[in-house]
Target: MFS transporter
Amino acid sequence: MQTFTFIWSGQVVSLIGSGLTHFGLGIWVYQNTKSVTLYALILLCGTLPSSLISPVAGVFVDRCSRRWVMILSDFGAGLSTLAIASLLFVDKLEAWHICLASAASSTFSAFQVPAFTAATTLLVPKKYLDRASGMIQLGQGISQLISPVLGGVLIGIIQLQGIVAIDVVTFFLGTIPLLLIKFPEPKTINASHTEALKKDSLLKEIIYGWQYITARPGLLGLLILFATNNFLMGSVGVLVTPLVLSFTSSAVLGMIVSVSGIGMLIGSLIISTRGGPKRLIHSVLGFQMLGGLSILIAGLRTSVELITLAAFLTFLGWPIINACAQVLFQKKVAPEMQGRFFAIRQMVTDTSFPLSYIIAGPLADNVFEPLMSPNGSLAGSIGQIIGVGPGRGIGLMFITIGVLAIVLSIAAYQYPRLRLVEHELPDTI
Model:
């Protein structure tokens, strides 16, 4: 685990820097525009390019050195952030600049994420894959815990310009372990078939990667589950900042984000130290149901305490869900196919995020918020239960999303190929 831990530490440093920037820019965009739709558009630009280019990126990950794919991806993302820093320093930053930079970072992420995931399978012994996946979630939890608190302090000292400059430095620090360590190459089960694939066109390789997934209904079912769940969670991601800022301050928002980071940190520590349970799929579905219940609770009242509790519980289960699913994929997919598989997985699951961004913002601004205004159509019925006024339409959306997430978990358990995926598919490593 030492080699993996060294690489992981560099990625965590980079994650913290990115978290600082995302927190600062998120507040800057919403406070300067007051538009949920525009806020959602920027999130869309940060995910859509990755979704579109992922199949091609996966082929390159399997064809090329996964280490160099990660190095070049980190370098490109650092340059995108550097562009934002430059515009901030000359006081020329506008929302469309952030859209362009987010799109560029998303493109580089399409290469970096499957390369890191596939490389982990080669760097870590099979029996420690669950702990490695937990450490990846732990790094995200550390970032979510530290970044809002640190960002809230630094924004008053060095302003947004200084925060983005720190992010640029952390991007390049994250590449140092990658420059110092060589990655092992995947051992192929059918070398002649793999070599033949490399001589095919990109389109044929992409098609073969998709055929590999569809031939395994349990994996396909897990992909569809994540795509649907990501749509729901993407909607929550768009709406949580406007919901909280509708009745309290950005400082409280930072506190809530930090508490969610504590939940993610605890969940990550559980999975990284204890490993996964015997039935991984049970943890995936069980904690997804807990997340749905928490989201439902968050929409009931304009209560900081209630939303904070819901955020903690949601993010407590999030790293456990992701780590358990990740181990399932790593064990069941052949190493020489993992670049393509994880890229297609990223495309399928991440496409639901842009869709949620497109839908959630306009629904909040044009449908749910008017319905829950003091004179809205639902003010005399649902409004008597959850309240009326700014943010209550978003609260109703949270309740709806929570109910859908619970129903999704129950329906997924009823599908035998998904419920029995651990027994029906043999391990490939």
